[in-house]
Specification:
Radius of gyration: 19 Å
Structural class: mainly alpha
Distance between the termini: 34 Å
Helix content: 40-55%
Oligomer: single chain
Length: 111
Amino acid sequence: MFPLLLPMDWTEFVTSDTVTWLLRPNNPSFRFWTRQHLVDRPITDQEIKESQNAVMVSPCIKTILGEQKGEGHWLLKNTYKGKMFCEIDEMNKPSKWITMRALRVLRRYFS
């Protein structure tokens, strides 16, 4: 069997330099994920809470949440005419597809 096809634990390749780099203050989502998954801090840890709060005010998350409507959905703002087999939703109406995509992005930030 080829060595590259054997199952590996990727965390064995993480060094302290890698963790230090991931904990830099310029990317709050990296800090949140690193503290939660690589450093194994509990979700109740103060540094985890601070990182999560920093993610909430990051430009990306502010943009996504800023487009969310009061009922919890997002509108279809751009047409995909000619790019799909059928129209997925009506313009400027609540879109289940855009809402699903936005929620997936948010889940990825906070998983």
